[in-house]
Amino acid sequence: MTQSDHPWWRGATIYQVYPRSFADSNGDGIGDLPGITSKLDYIASLNVDAVWLSPFFTSPMKDFGYDVADYCGVDPIFGTLADFDALIAKAHDLGLKILIDQVYSHTSDLHAWFAESRSNRSNPKADWYVWADANPDGTPPNNWQSVFGGPAWTWDARRGQYYMHNFLSSQPQMNVHNPDVQEALLGVAKFWMDRGVDGFRVDAINFAMHDPELKDNPPAPPGNGVRTRPFDFQLKIHNQSHPDIPAFIGRIRKLMDQYPDRFTVAEVGGPDPDKEMKAFTAGDDHFNSAYGFNFLYAEKLTPALVREALEAWPDDENVGWPSWAFSNHDAPRWISRWAPAGAEKSYAAMVMMLFVSLRGNVIIWQGEELALTQVDIPFDKLQDPEAIANWPLTLSRDGTRTPMPWVAADKQCGFSKGEPWLPLGTDHRDLAVDRAEADPHSMLNLTRKLVAFRNANEAMLVGNLNIVEARSNLLIFERISENQHLICAFNMGDDSIAWQPTQPDRWRMVKSVNDARLGTLPAYAAQILEKIA
């Protein structure tokens, strides 16, 4: 596949924006759609292909937008549908695609669908959510546990039944087995595509369907991790990952194919997501791509980890197209997890070069281009419901969601005129956009150059990837397309490594960081070589 004949999303670089924390236009301390629109020129300057917007839909914000009360509305704290239309128009003028979240497994308990469903057992939407009778002793129907802690069932006196929720009790589980529910969700997708949206990131899709027989989950065998929630004590076999999910995905894809150049990427969590990711992206009649959690919670970045992740997605006819994220709105920032103290800048440069060299799509989380660190949020400032419920053992998601720093000298770093909904990182002022813009050697300017390099090289975008070496701190892989052959070499350690390809006179270095030279990779150095003969 050459650079000119692949769809725009194949090899795309996607920039994830968390609307609450990106830019606040009205001074209420919460980011909004007009704020994002005002910063689209900045995003375009990163040379990315698309912007993924986390939820901005009408919501009580118990889970900050992933509890949707109206799939086709914009919550007033973020603006209006007219504001969204203006954002789409400007993004398209700048050549940026817009992707938005779709949450198809659950809604808010304030959604009109749930209000009708819970009113009695005979209404038209009675079977739109997962309802079940109590056991004879009044206990919940089975042993399923919710992700955020406690049973996955809440009693509802209106119906005299329990309703299921995989997450918060205010996030009732939809019965996606029901064809009417599927039609309604497809209608939501059509609504947004008709407004010009270029694609979807589909949230928690492996939670979309359950075992209708409501069989108990078996206990999980002991592991090395600390169990902080009842959810951790079970193998999640029956409350999620039902084999009918790919058929529903096929219906979504059939609708998407009626619109040109649309793209879908699925989030697939869990301890062993590869099987589901493959099923959800198989052939040309499912999602275009999926990403798992290979890197998102990894405590250390190693050649072995990269090898394991990449080799799970070979360039085979029946294997889907991967997407990769190193951090996001749920996972702590990688620079705080991986970078050695005192070597953060050089380490970050190596990691960003590795990131843009991967086969698949790369999803840059807002602030990664500035090397923003994870923020330690004190308990009295926490907003994340899971972190509050399981304090202090569950890592707060708030620490990665803090406001973007735009202007170092401004009181709130240019994010807002008011008090931000989460505190700014104490070291983020020094990493603010205006300071990074002025520094030719900043992470921001390096990111721009690396993404531009990726875009300009066919092998980086669509080429095959072959691991040459992955041992100790040395990672070498090839990227090979019809018209180009590259070798990418990375030293992930603090000792210099002597390395050169066979027949070194047939290669030229086309990109490097941290003083990499032909034959030598100093600490945290990386280089990309192109075959010339």
UniProtKB/TrEMBL annotation:
Recite the UniProt keywords alphabetically. Answer: Glycosidase, Hydrolase
The record places domain Glycosyl hydrolase family 13 catalytic at 16-401
Q: At the top level of its lineage, which domain of life is listed?
A: Bacteria
Gene Ontology molecular-function annotations: alpha-amylase activity
Give the residue spans that cross the bilayer.
none
Alphabetically, which GO biological process terms does the record hold? oligosaccharide catabolic process
Query: In which family does this protein belong, per the annotation?
Result: Belongs to the glycosyl hydrolase 13 family.
Q: What is this protein called?
A: Alpha-glucosidase
The species this protein belongs to is Sphingorhabdus contaminans
